[in-house]
Amino acid sequence: MSTDQPVTVEVGLGDRAYDILIGSGLLLRAGEEISRRLPGTRAAVVTDENVAAAHLDTLKAGLEKGGIQPTVITMPPGEKTKSFAHLEAVVDGILAARLERGDVVIALGGGVIGDLTGFAAGIVRRGMNFVQIPTSLLAQVDSSVGGKTGINSPRGKNLVGVFLQPKLVLADTEVLDTLPVREFRAGYAELAKYGLIDRPDLFAWLEANWEKVFAGGPERAQAIAEACRAKADVVARDEFETGDRALLNLGHTFGHALEAATQYDGARLVHGEGVAIGMALAHRFSSRLNLASPDDAARVEAHLSAVGLPWRMSDIPGDLPDAEALLAFITQDKKVSRGALTFILTRGVGQAFIAKDVPASEVLSFLRESHPVSRKAG
Amino acid sequence: MSTDQPVTVEVGLGDRAYDILIGSGLLLRAGEEISRRLPGTRAAVVTDENVAAAHLDTLKAGLEKGGIQPTVITMPPGEKTKSFAHLEAVVDGILAARLERGDVVIALGGGVIGDLTGFAAGIVRRGMNFVQIPTSLLAQVDSSVGGKTGINSPRGKNLVGVFLQPKLVLADTEVLDTLPVREFRAGYAELAKYGLIDRPDLFAWLEANWEKVFAGGPERAQAIAEACRAKADVVARDEFETGDRALLNLGHTFGHALEAATQYDGARLVHGEGVAIGMALAHRFSSRLNLASPDDAARVEAHLSAVGLPWRMSDIPGDLPDAEALLAFITQDKKVSRGALTFILTRGVGQAFIAKDVPASEVLSFLRESHPVSRKAG
């Protein structure tokens, strides 16, 4: 265990401002960091069975050092846990522990646990204190900033939830060592996204240093901190997602369509991989629309490829539906106004923008050209 | 149907400010009032079977006039509807109607429907527009101001929910004509409460005019407006219930204990009746502690009695648990710090205050004296 000082990113949201601490060994400092900010608090920890097996004892030891003996609520792992039934179970667990509004609910886990736990913390007694301890790279760079919490509905993902800013986020870079490499890579796609949105320097730095980020040196904490800062900037401009925050969807329109087209089968495509392909397609599509240089698209594709991420549709194992069907997944996901779609496009690396009038016909032509079947045929 | 202009109460909560319109015939003006504030909106109406039978056709006609054809979601009547299962059903109904964040969810009903619907509106897509059309007097003077929404848990009432301010409240005084008189009276207890908290003029006015309020003249709208203004003032000072808002609990500590002691059996005691007895007891207890004159307690008792409300424990049909058991219900409801309890006490009509150090022993002695069995024995 390292004893390096963590990096602190302040998320400036007025009276909802909070710190993200990023570094190794933070699980063991959890009690100290929480009790410094929320003195005398009692706590519940919500986690899943896999994360509990790997990290719960360490966290409990860390909380103990701050005088906190938490109630532990353990959920099954997996996306299905983001449901009303599990929400009710977490809520009941918190109430059974007789926690009050000033007490704290701690999420120890990936995005699923963070989203579910934050939602529960936001509704028990109409809002308790919430602390996030994200244990996946994706959760550290994505859900740790922004205050979105929620569960899925049979009618769609993340359709039910609240905005709740945490009081503190502890991103322990050491726990990422236990992640399967494929999951780490998928999180890395979201990390690289922040460079592509509006931080060209970050993207260039990642091109030079990604191997160290994967290896787990101080560059890992540095990269995560930079991504959190980038997201915090966007969120501070648009906390409740009425405008600029849409930039965070770079790569997500194509990505979601591909996830849906593969029936959310994680064996074929996980979310971060969908985003990777989606980002490459968004750059290539922008180039096709003469908005950006083809060199930029090639540069993005090359980097994703270098780190081992999929970047084109043909990288997805198995057959895909045809271009018309993929377009239908896109239009299902969005309101289509007079045949025009909103997309996040780009003028080059770090120059993404919200394009509100993308003709569906252009999207369709592009999907046809990019489709593995067409490519083989052509 | 009257065509009087409604009274408008503005609830000043910064960017969450909204209007309460109070008057007769407002159901028929709903479409106009909503579309003026939320142009082009689509809507879902959530109601219960009883209210739907009495008022849904009128509301639909009123919405139609504003070009709104709502999806209707009908729940069973009664407190049991404030559950996770019904919350999920309402959420699913809103999503099934494909409403977006800018669309509106309308609650047509009493407190149960208002609390449940507001909670659903607060979590679908992380917050939609919410309009309240309260159809009970209690809901018009209580839940229409304050932004508290929620459901019950097996571990207690209203333990799960969010704060969500509506965009508009339409308090149609005409719909109150269909209320059973016992329910109207129970709502009146909460109305009188605002006079007792900090509006002595309102209480005196009610003493002189309560019969007109019950009869349904312009005095009814006037009284409701005054109660809403009183509550809005308290809520504006303390939106998220960290201080002054506790004043709204006048009568509720004793009242909740009596509700619990009668197993929430509405045939014996409904919430507003518990509050009526609780308010009388709070005044009598304040007098016993030499905080207020016994004349004030007698005045409160006389008014509650005049309107036909219960005001003492012996007014509750059937046997009550003894004083020790009632105290246990009170301490169960609250955190007890070193034998001291927080109570809303008073220095006289319109002079309520938060007392944080009320000895449990004093409460017990008072309960013994006030208990019907002791009184009969004594």
Automatic annotation (TrEMBL), chains A, B:
Listed Pfam families? DHQ_synthase, DHQS_C
Task: Give binding positions for NAD(+).
Answer: 111-115, 135-136, 148, 157
Give me the residues that bind Zn(2+), please.
Answer: 190, 252, 271
> Enzyme class, one word?
lyase
SUPFAM superfamilies, per the entry: Dehydroquinate synthase-like
Q: Give the EC number(s) listed in the UniProt record.
A: 4.2.3.4
Keyword vocabulary terms for this entry: Amino-acid biosynthesis, Aromatic amino acid biosynthesis, Cobalt, Cytoplasm, Lyase, Metal-binding, NAD, Nucleotide-binding, Zinc
Segments forming domain 3-dehydroquinate synthase C-terminal: 187-336
Q: In which pathway does it act?
A: Metabolic intermediate biosynthesis; chorismate biosynthesis; chorismate from D-erythrose 4-phosphate and phosphoenolpyruvate: step 2/7
The reaction(s) catalysed by this protein are: 7-phospho-2-dehydro-3-deoxy-D-arabino-heptonate = 3-dehydroquinate + phosphate
Q: Function of this protein?
A: Catalyzes the conversion of 3-deoxy-D-arabino-heptulosonate 7-phosphate (DAHP) to dehydroquinate (DHQ).
Q: What is this protein called?
A: 3-dehydroquinate synthase
Name of the gene encoding the protein in the UniProt record? aroB
